[in-house]
Amino acid sequence: MGKWRWDRFFDAFPFIWDGLLVTIEFTLLGSLVAYTLGLALAILRRMRIPVVDQTLWAAIEFIRSTPLLVQIFVLYWVVRPDLLGALPLETQRLVVGVTALGVHYACYTSEVYRAGIDAVPAGQWEAATALNLPRGRVWTDVILPQAVPRVLPALGNYTIAMFKEVPLLSSIVILDMVYQVKTVYAASAGGAGPEAWFAVGLTFLALSYPCSILVRKLERRVGII
Description:
single chain
């Protein structure tokens, strides 16, 4: 083993910073898709339409039971050429990356939303029915304002998990922290040694750990679903 070199450790951070901005971008966009799609899936399953419920259940279980990396490859190499072939390559990669993260985690957040919706007292549903509220207003004015705050801690945990899985997108040339160190830094510094990878790990730790503390505080405030 070679001698530890602090210069290589510190030299990695400019490349990590460039990749960090990309990592945060994909985390935010992927979370937006996951939260929105997950809520839509939960509401659709709550409607108790047998064919819809069974189809969504099968799709959710399939996605949850297969690796995210495999899903990324399928979207990139199988789906992308036909559906996104007319777009610039960078845009194609953006769409594939955000879609893969968003759909994968939507299958988890949908179950979280379902738990939050089921936790709303039955009397709230009955009161909304007695008032003859339109179905849309029942959801927007009665159910969701009570259900969503309950699930915020769980959604926060999934956002942190997504942040730590963005490096999987380096496999399709997304310029996140891992890709920057593995390719760009390695090309300029003659190889990415343990110092650079240690710097990447510290960066993930420095950002994800404080966020996990905030999520735990939120759990104590609103309860855990």
